[in-house]
Amino acid sequence: MASIAIRGVKKNYAKTAVVHGVDLDFASGEFVVILGPSGCGKSTLLRMIAGLEEISEGTIAIDGTVVNKLEPRERGCAMVFQNYALYPHMSVAQNIGYSLKVAGVPAAERNQRIQAVARTLELEHLLDRKPMALSGGQRQRVAMGRAMIREPKVFLFDEPLSNLDAKLRVQMRSEIRKLHRRLDATSVFVTHDQVEAMTLADRLVVMNGGRVEQVGTPAEVYSRPASRFVATFVGAPAMNILEGTVELDGLSLPGGSRRLAMPRAGLPVGTKVAMGIRPEAVRLVAPGTSGALSATVDLVEELGAGRVIYVDLDGAPFSVMTSEAVHAEPGSTVGLKISPEDMHFFSSETGSRLDVFKASVPEPAL
Amino acid sequence: MEKRVTFSRWTIGILFAVPQLLLIFTFFYWPAGQAVYWSLTLQQPWGGGNIWVGLDNFRSILSNADYWHSITASLVFAGISTGLAMFIALVLAALTDRQLAGSWLYRVVLIWPYGIAAPALALAFRFILAPEAGFMAVVNQVWPGFWDPGLDGTDAMTSIIIAFSWKYVGYNFIFFLAAFQAIPRSLIEAAAMDGSGVIRRFWDIQFPLITPTIFFLLVINITESFQDSFGIVDIMTAGGPANATNLMVYKIYSDGFKGLDYSGAAAQSIILMILIVALTVVQFRFIERRVHYR
To answer: Helix A92-102 and helix A107-121: axis angle, to 10°?
Structure first.
C-alpha cells in the first residue's frame, strides 16, 4: 500500500506538450481510474508514475518519496500492459516468475510463489504453456499474475481490458476489483471506456487534452459533471446539450421563440449557456403538453430493457432514454418534458460548470 | 490449413515456374553438372577431348597436404570473420536500438560497405593495412617488424579477415537492427518493470527474440565467407604468403585458371559445395533447435 502524490506534472515531447500540469493525490489502497479519450495524456501520466517515461516538470512521490529520478524497478510499481507484453519465448510459469528470478529469489521459493499466484488466477494447468498457446483472457490473467507476484505497493493498469471481447471484459472487470480488495495495493487504472471506469473506480479522474477535468467518485462525476466535456464524455448515451440564452422568463433556445423553464437564480440575464440534460432525465409526453418541447422522431434504438429515441429538436440532435414501452414511429412528433432540477449549466465560452440555485421559476406559457 | 493458390490446369502452374526454372537450370544446374562431369574426367588444358578417370581427381586432391591446408585456412577464415562480423554488428545494433535519434543515418551509412564490390574494398584495405605507409607504418616504427602481411601468414590472414568482416558488419547490422526494432517496446518495458536492468534485459528478452535473425545471418555469413572471399584474397594477398591465405575458393581459381588443372579445380569446387551444404545442414539440425520463432 502506498499513497501517490502528483504535483504540477508536465510532459513535453520535443515541442509538443501532452500533459499540462497535473496535480493529483491518490490515497493508500485506493482504486483510481483515469478516464479520457485517446490522446488525452492518461497513459503518459501512468507511464510517468511507472518510470517508463521521463517527467518533464513537476514531481511524483510514492509514499512520500519523490521518484522522478528512480528506475522503474526501484519504485515498487507493477504494471499490466494493454497488449499484455508477455515474453513470447518463456512459459507461463517463467513469465510470472521472471521478476523473482531477476531479484535472485531461490528456485524453490520462486516455484512456491508461482504456484500460489497461479492458484489465485486459476492458471495452474497452463503453467507450462507458451503465451502463443493461450486465449486472450488467459494471457490477461498471466499478465496480472506477473504483476501480482511481486506484491507491489502500486498496481498500474494501462487499458488492460481493451483487447478482450465484451463478455470477458465484464468478467475480468469484477476479477480485477476482487483482486484489488484482496491485495490491498493502490491501483491506478487507465481506460477510455466509461463503463469500465464507473464500475471499477473508488475515485475517477477525468482527463482531456492533457488536463484533469474532474476528480470525484463515479456518482459525483455522473451527477455533477464539472465541465461540458465531462458531461458529454461520461454517461451513455451522451448528455444532450442545448445552447441558449438566459432570459427573464427562462432559457431561450435558438431558432425560435421557445422558452424552457429553468432555475435561473444566480445567472444574469443575457448569459449564453450550454444547458445539459441526460437522456434518461427527459420524459416523453404527448405532443402539445404544456411546458413540453415538441420534436420529430428520427430513430429508435431498442435495448431490451429500455430504448433510446433520437429526435430532431429544431435541427439539433437530441436523445431520450426511457424504460417505458413507448411507441414512437420515426417521423412522428413527440413532446419532451425537461425538469429544471435535472438541468446542468455550462459556460458557453469556457465549458466549465455554472452553478445555479435549485430554485425553479414558474413555467412560462409557450 | 495453409492457403494455396490453385490452378485449374497444372500446365499453367508449370508455365509460371518456367522463367525461374530456366534461370536456375542455366546458371546453377548446368554449370554444377558440368563441374561434376569434369571432376570425373581429365580435361585437356587446351581442349581436344578428355579421359574418364573416375574418382582419381578427388583421390589426388585429398592426398595433397596443400589442399588440407587450404581447407583449414578456409575454416579459420570463416569462423573468425563470421564471429567478428556478427559480434560487432550485434553490439552496434543493440546500441543503436537504444538511442534511436538519427538511426536512419546509421542504416544508410552502414549498408554501403556491403554495396562495395569485394575487389574495390580489398584494394582500399590493401592501402589501409600497408606496412610501409599509413597507420600500420607508424605501428611498425614503434615495434619494428610487427606488421607485414606480405611476409607473415598470420598478418595476411588478419588482413583479409578485417576486410571481409568490415563488409559484412554493415549487412548484419541492418538485419540485427530490424530484428531489435521488431521486438515490441512494451516487452522491454515489462522487463524493466520486472526489475531487469539493461544488460539483463538484453540477455533475457532481446537476445532470445532475435535468435531467428542470428541463425539466418550465421548461415549466410558462413556460406558467404567461403564464396565471397575470392575478390578480397585475389587483390590483397593472392593466396600468399606461402599459401597462408590460399582459401578453397581461391585455390580453385588459381589451380584451374592459372595452373590449367580444370579437372582438379572442378573436383575442388565439388568438395567446396559439399562442405557448404554439410555445414548448412549441421546448422539447421543443431542450432535451429535453439531458435525461438515467434
So the answer is: 130
> Residues with Cβ < 8 Å from B47, sequence gap 6 or more?
none
Q: Do the chains contact at B193 and A77, CB–CB below 8 Å?
A: yes
Q: Does the residue B19 lie in any domain?
A: no
Interface contact A87-B205, CB threshold 8 A: yes
pLDDT over threshold 80, residue B106:
no
- A82 contact B CB<8A: yes
Q: Are residues A68 and A177 in the same domain?
A: yes
ipTM of the complex: 0.80
Name the pLDDT band for A261 (thresholds 50, 70, 90): confident
Helices in A154-311 by DSSP H: which ranges? 166-183, 194-200, 218-223, 228-233
| Contact call for residues A276 and A231 (beta carbons, < 8 A) | yes
In angstroms, the CA B93 to CA B113 distance is 16
Cβ-Cβ contacts under 8 Å for A287 (sequence gap 6 or more):
A294, A333, A334, A335
Give the gap in angstroms from C-alpha B208 to the nearest C-alpha of chain A.
Answer: 7
Nearest to A282 by CA among A238, A220, A245: A238
Q: Which domain holds residue B164?
A: 57-290
Calculate how close chain A gets to B187, using CA atoms only, in Å: 5
Chain A 269-298, residues with CB within 8 Å of chain B CB atoms? none
Q: What is the DSSP string of A85-112?
A: ---TTS-HHHHHHHHHHHTT--HHHHHH
Q: How confident is the model at residue A60 (pLDDT cuts 50, 70, 90)?
A: very high
Q: How far is A268 from chain B (nearest CA, A)?
A: 53
| Domains: count for chain A | 2
Does A182 share its domain with A312?
Answer: no
Q: Could you give the CA distance from residue A305 to residue B72 in angstroms, rounded to a whole number? A: 83
pLDDT at A363: 47
CATH number of the domain within which B130 lies: 1.10.3720.10
Cell numbers of A77, please? Answer: 510499481
CB contact A117 to B (< 8 Å):
no
Shared domain for A115 and A208, answered yes or no, is yes
Vertex B213: Cα angle to B209 and B216 (nearest 5): 145
Q: Which residues of chain B approach chain A closer than 8 Å at the C-beta? A: 184, 186-187, 189-197, 200, 204-205, 208-209, 292, 294
pLDDT for B36-87, tens place per residue?
988 898 887 777 778 888 888 888 888 888 889 999 999 999 999 999 999 9
d(CA B113, CA B94): 19
The beta-carbon neighbor of B194 closest among A51, A82, A98 is A98
- Per residue in B180-194, pLDDT (tens digit) is 988 988 899 999 998
Mind listing the pLDDT tens digit for each residue in B145-167?
A: 888 888 888 889 999 999 999 99
